[in-house]
Amino acid sequence: MSSAKRVSKPRETWRTDSTNVLDRYLLAKTGQLIRDVTADLEALGRELDALRQEVLDSRGAKDAAYIRRTIAAQRYLELGSRAVLLFSIFPPAWLLGTAGLTAALCVDTLERQGVTPARGEVLVTGATGGVGSIAVALLGRLGYNVAAVTGKASEAGFLRALGATTVLSRDEFNDGASRVLLKERWAGVVDTVGDALLASAIKATRYGGSIAACGNAASPKLELTVFPFILRGVNLLGIDSANCPLEIRTSLWRRLGNDLLLRPT
C-alpha cells in the first residue's frame, strides 16, 4: 500500500517591491501588525474620502477646508506611527523599554512579598546599569531606604540624586563573602548581576526577606549554601520580563507613567 505524501502548507511570508532596506526590515519584523494597521488606515482613508466628497457636494467651501485639515492630520499621524516603528528598531529604544519593565517587575514583586519601606533597607546591585538605576529611582520615589552597590565610585552622586540613601562599593559589599551567612540587613534586594554579589545579598537578607533576581551581568553562577533559605526563610524570586503577560505589562506601564515616574515629589 502506497502512502500519500503529506504536503505542508507553505508558510506565509512578507515581501515588498520597495528597494528601501528599512521598509523590508520593518515588514519582516512586524508583518501581522503592519497588515492590521494598514487595513485600518485604508478603511479610515476610504471613509474620510467618502465624507470629503459628500461635504464638497453639499456643504460648501468652509466644511471642505475642515475635511482637508482632518485628512492632513490623519496623514501626519500615519507618518508619526512609522517614525515610532523606525525608532523601535534601534537598541537604545529596546534597552529603555526592557529596563523600565524589568525594574517595575522587580519592585512590584517585592511589594507583593510584603517588602514595605517600614521593613528596612532595600539593596540594588548593578545600580548604575539600566535596570538598576531605574529600580533605585522607583524605590526612592516610593519611600524606601535604598542602598546601591556599584563598581563606579564616581557615580555615587548620580545614585544619590536618583534616590539612594547609601552607596556601597562592590569590594566593600563583597567583604566576608566566604561566610555561609552574614549579618542580617536587607529587607529586600533587586539583583541585576548574579554571581558573588547575589550570593552576598542573599546571605545578608533579613528573616523572611525577598530577593528579585533579574540579571547575570557578572555571571550566571550562584554559589552558596541552603542556610539562608532554611534558617531565615529567604525568598529568591526570578524576574522574567521577556514572557511577561500583556495584562501585567499594561498595568506596570500605567503605574510607571501615572504613579511612579510622573508623580509629583
Overview of the molecule:
The chain is an alpha/beta fold. The chain has 2 domains: 21-89; 93-260, NAD(P)-binding Rossmann-like Domain (Rossmann fold), CATH 3.40.50. Helix content is 53%, strand content 12%. It has 10 helices and 6 strands; from the N terminus they run ααααβαβαβαβαβαβα. The protein has a 6-stranded parallel sheet, sandwiched between helices. The radius of gyration is 26 Å and the shape is elongated.
Write the layout of secondary structure elements.
Layout: H1 21-29, H2 31-58, H3 61-88, H4 91-112, E1 122-124, H5 130-141, E2 146-150, H6 156-162, E3 164-169, H7 170-173, E4 186-191, H8 195-203, E5 205-213, H9 227-232, E6 235-238, H10 246-260
Parallel strand pairs: 1-2, 1-4, 2-3, 4-5, 5-6
Helix pairs in contact: 2-3, 4-5, 4-10
Order of helices and strands: HHHHEHEHEHEHEHEH
Instruction: Count every beta strand, where a strand is a DSSP E run of 2 or more residues.
Output: 6
Largest sheet: 6 strands, parallel
Mean pLDDT: 77
Number of domains: 2
Distance between the termini: 79 Å
CATH class of the largest domain: Alpha Beta
Decide which structural class fits the backbone.
alpha/beta
The percent range for helix content is 40-55%
In CATH, the homologous superfamily of the largest domain goes by the name NAD(P)-binding Rossmann-like Domain
Task: From the alpha carbons, calculate the radius of gyration and give it in angstroms.
Answer: 26 Å
Into which percentage range does the β-strand content fall? Answer: 5-15%
